[in-house]
Amino acid sequence: MKIYVDVNAKFDGDGSNKRPFKTISEAAQVALPGDKVLVAPGVYRENVKPVHAGTEEDRIVYKSVKPLAAVVTGAEEVKNWERHQADVWLARIKNGVFGDYNPYTTYVFGDWYFATRDKHTGCVWLNDEALYEATTLEDCLNPKKSETSWVPEKSLCKWYTEQDEEKDETLIYANFGGIDPNEEKVEITVRRQCFMPEETGIGYITVKGFDINKAATTWAPPAAYQDGMIGPHWSKGWIIEECDIWGSKCAGISIGKYLDPENNHYFTTKHVKSPTQMERDAVCRGQYHGWIKEKVGSHIIRRNNIHHCEQGGIIGRMGGVFSLIEDNHIHHINNMMELGGAEIAGIKIHAAIDITMRRNHIHHCTMGIWTDWEAQGTRISQNLLHDNQKPAFAKHLPGGMMSMDLFVEVSHGPTLIDNNILLSDVSLRFATQGVALVHNLIAGSFTCVGDGTGWRYTPYHFPHQTEVMGFMTILHGDNRFYNNIFVQKWPKENYQVFSDSAPDEPGQGENREVGTHVFDDYPTYDEWISHFQMEEDIPNMRELEQFHFSHLPIWAKGNAYLAGAEAWKKERDFFTDKDSEISLELVEEKGQYKLQTNLYDVMKDFRADMVHTETLGKAFEPDQAFENNDGTPISFNKDYFGNHRGVEVLPGPFARAEDAAKALL
Question: Are 236 and 323 a contacting pair, CB within 8 Å?
Fold first, then answer.
């Protein structure tokens, strides 16, 4: 059945073509498996909460009949601004507007939130641009540029809020930089979400072609309820496609956790157990609450434009397993630098079990892709990542995260990273093990090698399942590097980070030297296995204990190192050229991105071997191969574009040298 919605209809209707509903929420109350909800152009100021699930055979489809013309927003227009003083205006909002959730009394905070707790979940918008929040009225009256923002010139427009308890009103002061707000489009975020079921288990829903924006979402760490502007809320089989998703205070799309009251922000509220322990609890409690392949995950998120969210573009813990995230444009995440903590990235996924992320374009994010815990069966392939780095003029936000293209953290693998173009000054933060990098173009460094894990006993799982197989701390190593190109594009000088306690004083340096040489102290497989008394029928357990907690081996072959990038000292069969001048620039022309490079001229006739699942072996702890999600082997005979690699195997992401000049998107 087709159900029609038109916010501009003259009267409330019954969902028929001649008498459409005026709200999507009305349709969401009655839509059943097989129904299509067709939404006419217009602005829908509501929080859509689907009530009924579809089925695998008969999905419920919500579709904007004209792409991006149906706008679902968590904001409301405000037209009653009165001049307070100079360029600052005042609006009084009756608190009844907010219901049981007032974004102007609710702060962004929680587990793994490190910045100052002085930012509300609400926001003021001028012509679809977010104003920065001031912590005092004086700061609003006399604004100063933010020293941490990536776009400091925009930070002079500020807002400030307080409560008039006697009148039960929220007061919002805003400095619009000399603009009369009553003559412009000014909105405030009012609703926490835009399109998300209230109950769990509402699966097999398609949301297509909507503009979804401006929600007062809350901080979404891994052991808490994770909301976003849109998300499936712990169910199975959603498709979110061809949407424009932007303007979330925290997360754009959530494929994360349900509300578990006994383990919700436990560290923040009770203090007595570490947040890491709460994450372990969350994994085990999740299995009690139905975290199995038959009930949760297997979502598709594709061809969306996700941008200008201040925590993450796509976030999730456990609820996104077995999902596909492809062909999305994710950009300008956390650029305001008002929020800081350990959950910030273009894509931030805990337990990315059998998640494939491919052909995404990710740039100008504090971090590109961050897989945290249980990146097992995870494949990151054919993505373009660039400019995921703090501008040189911006100071480090106390509590903020360092910038990089990829971060794989405290996982046991197998995590497969292949055919990507990684152009930021840090390519991968390596606080993990069990990673294979194959046929990538890597212009940045590896950081946190052998560090950053502590006593992080994390789970690993039975292959291609959610059931826990075991827990182990991170030994580091167990990594493979095949047929990559490494280029020392960025300066080698250590980048100074700043401590939270003394934000104006330099802290530790981070590596900016490109190449696999950072693993020089790690053993080859033959060196590692030689310690384990393989010839003995009864090995000496006490003698072997030290080796059970030592670094795991490294494999490397067929890589090219240019412009000063350095190879692992034990690597054989590689190419190096330290003398030739290398050009490697990403150029944008009319929305097209192309590489300008002489890489293949310098490498000349150097060729590598074809790589297969068998080449890569198995990740150590789960004893799982680097294979497809259905357990079949992979032959890396396709490149960044999907073109076939023949008998002449070039290192890097392109099957042919001339392909490097093609448009990348």
Answer: no
What are the start-end ranges of the E strands in 466-625?
468-472, 479-482, 485-487, 495-498, 506-510, 554-557, 560-562, 575-577, 584-589, 592-597, 618-619, 624-625
CB-facing half-sphere around the CA of 44: CA atoms within 13 A: 29
pLDDT in tens, 258-289: 999 888 898 999 999 888 998 999 999 998 88
**C-alpha distances in angstroms, 432 versus 373, 375, 452?**
9, 9, 9
Buried b (16+ CB within 10 A) or exposed e, 186-218: bbbbbbbbbbbbeebebbbbbbbbbbbbbbbbb
Give residue 496's pLDDT band: very low, low, confident or very high (50, 70, 90).
low
d(CA 226, CA 256): 5
At residue 306, the pLDDT reads 98
User: Which single residue is written with the structure tokens 């807002």?
Assistant: 159
Terminal-to-terminal C-alpha distance of the chain: 37
CA-to-CA distance for 91 and 88, rounded, in angstroms?
10
Q: How far is CA 105 from CA 4, 128, 138, in A?
A: 37, 23, 19
Q: Within the chain, which residue ranges are assigned CATH 2.160.20.10?
A: 208-490
Would the CA dihedral through 598, 602, 603, 605 be positive or negative? positive
Contacts of 658 (CB under 8 A, 6+ apart): none
Give me the chain's average pLDDT, please. 95
Instruction: Indicate the burial class of 267 (C-beta count within 10 angstroms; 0-12, 13-18, 19 or more).
Output: buried
Is-contact 140 134, C-beta < 8 A?
yes
CA angle 352, 383, 560 (to 5 degrees): 110
pLDDT of 622-643, one tens digit each?
999 999 999 999 999 999 999 9
Which CATH homologous superfamily contains domain 75-189?
A: Golgi alpha-mannosidase II (2.60.40.1180)
The pair of structure tokens assigned to 57 is 């055979």
Q: Which residues contact 423 (CB under 8 A, 6 or more apart)?
A: 385, 386, 387, 405, 441, 443, 444, 489, 584, 586
Query: To which residue do tokens 């808490």 refer?
Result: 224
pTM of the model: 0.97
- With 0-12 / 13-18 / 19 or more C-beta atoms within 10 angstroms meaning exposed / middle / buried, residue 230 is buried
CB–CB of 24/38 below 8 Å? Answer: no
Q: What token pair was written down for 490? A: 């960025």
As given in the structure block, the two tokens for residue 286 are: 């999740």
Q: What is the mean pLDDT of residues 547-556?
A: 95
Q: Is the dihedral of CA 30, 33, 36, 37 positive or negative?
A: positive
Amino acid at 373: W
> Are residues 413 and 622 in contact, defined by beta-carbon separation less than 8 angstroms?
yes
Tokens of 580: 């030739």
Nearest CA to 559 among 652, 655, 479, 484? 484
Q: What SS3 class is residue 146?
A: coil
To which CATH superfamily is domain 208-490 assigned? Single-stranded right-handed beta-helix, Pectin lyase-like (2.160.20.10)
Alpha-carbon dihedral sign for residues 431, 418, 255, 192: positive
- The maximal CA–CA distance of the chain, rounded, in angstroms, is 86
Listed in order, the ranges of the chain carrying CATH 2.60.40.1180 are: 75-189
Q: In sequence order, what are the residues at sequence separation of 6 or more whose Cβ sits closer than 8 angstroms to the Cβ of residue 526? A: none
CB 160, CB 135: distance < 8 Å: yes
For the chain, give me the number of helices (H) and strands (E)? 8, 50
Cα–Cα distances in Å, from 5 out to 36, 39, 43, 128? 11, 5, 12, 25
